[in-house]
Write a structure and sequence with these properties.
Blueprint: E1 9-11, H1 20-28, E2 34-36, E3 40-41, H2 49-55, E4 71-76, H3 80-92, E5 98-102, H4 107-111, H5 122-135, E6 142-147, H6 156-165, E7 170-174, H7 192-198, E8 203-206, H8 212-222, E9 226-229, H9 231-235, H10 239-245, H11 255-269, H12 279-288, H13 295-302, H14 308-322
Parallel strand pairs: 1-2, 1-9, 2-4, 3-4, 4-5, 5-6, 6-7, 7-8, 8-9
């Protein structure tokens, strides 16, 4: 396959999955240009500083992950003025960029007039982008994340034109509609006419990028210079670094090494709530099974466990018995 010219690799926002701890873990493995937070839900009020610090604790560290990767704050809502004042607050707290979410397909989000439901009202989207752009300093990037459309892609061109005219710095397009959800395939080709008119240097392709070949094909078929990784990053944690290396022969991190990282992530970020101990680790293992069949045996060991000691023992048993690693 012909290799495309790669620009940025961006770690996608994934609500309830890619939190600050996971951003730190994944960016430490290399390859990422920047990250985007889980969404800060905005209704009609100015949110207190603690909300931004909870969802983006990196604001206390120059808005960067421990490995130095910039983190943009994502806002989700439908009230343009409220989004604008909260964007100003995020910037005042040190946000390096603001991202607007018009892509989330979740029913609970859409039912409260947030995320992809707004794609049915492109002028509303445009007004939000313009209002937020006017509210924050010109040097602060304003990025926007959308899908192809709500139920089809017929309005994509007009939607994107208005977003650019409203002052967006970059546009990430998840190449599926709201109704497509996350079902394969992603329709990368439908993005290309937009890129041909508005440019590849500020357009990001997202959706169904699981491998280096997927990355190359997504760029070639969409015309985008940049890619965004979400579920692919969780399935193959070193995928970004391998994509940046651009060598199809570069092998993925062995499970024997990765399982130690998964355990470290459990200890650092999945033990604080007694009611939910291990939940995010089990969730991550479900994603890892796509690329690492060996993760199934670990998942089976800790699937029904809910205490820190039990789960630590399950990791030890997996490494010693399943993998014969000395702990």
């Amino acid at each position: 396959m012909t290799h495309s010219t790669l620009g940025s690799v961006i770690l996608a926002p994934m609500e309830g999955v890619i939190d600050a701890a996971m951003r730190a873990r994944l960016t430490d493995l290399g390859g990422y240009t920047r990250c985007v937070t889980e969404f800060v839900r905005v209704s009609d009020v100015l949110l207190p500083e603690r909300v931004f610090h909870r969802l983006c604790p990196e604001l206390l560290q120059d808005a960067r992950t421990p490995s130095g990767v910039p983190v943009y704050v994502q806002l989700l809502g439908s009230n343009a003025e409220a989004l604008a004042v909260n964007a100003k607050r995020a910037v005042s707290l040190g946000a390096l960029g603001i991202d607007l979410n018009f892509g989330c397909p979740a029913k609970t989000v859409n039912n409260s007039q947030g995320g992809s439901i707004l794609l049915r009202e492109p002028e509303w989207v445009h007004r939000i982008v313009a209002t937020v752009r006017d509210a924050i300093p010109a040097q602060i990037p304003l990025t926007v994340k959308i899908r192809l459309g709500y139920d089809d892609a017929s309005g994509l061109h007009a939607l994107c034109r208005g977003i650019w005219q409203s002052g967006a710095s970059e546009l990430a397009i998840h190449a599926r509609t709201k109704f497509d959800g996350y079902k394969p395939p992603a329709y990368w080709d439908l993005v290309k006419p937009v890129v041909e008119e508005f440019g590849a240097s500020n357009t990001i392709i997202n959706g169904e990028i699981w491998t280096l070949d997927d990355s190359n094909e997504a760029q070639l078929r969409s015309g985008c210079s940049h890619i965004m990784l979400g579920r692919g990053a969780l399935s193959s944690p070193d995928l970004a670094s391998r994509i940046v290396a651009g060598n199809a022969n570069t092998e993925a991190m062995p499970w024997r090494e990765l399982v130690k990282i998964v355990h470290a992530q459990f200890i650092s970020s999945d033990c604080s709530s007694p009611r939910h101990v291990g939940n995010r680790t089990k969730q991550w293992l479900a994603y890892l099974r796509r690329s690492y069949p060996e993760s199934l045996s670990l998942f089976q060991r800790l699937r029904t466990l809910h205490s820190i000691d039990e789960i630590n023992n399950a990791f030890a048993a997996h490494m010693q018995s399943d993998l014969a690693i000395a702990c």
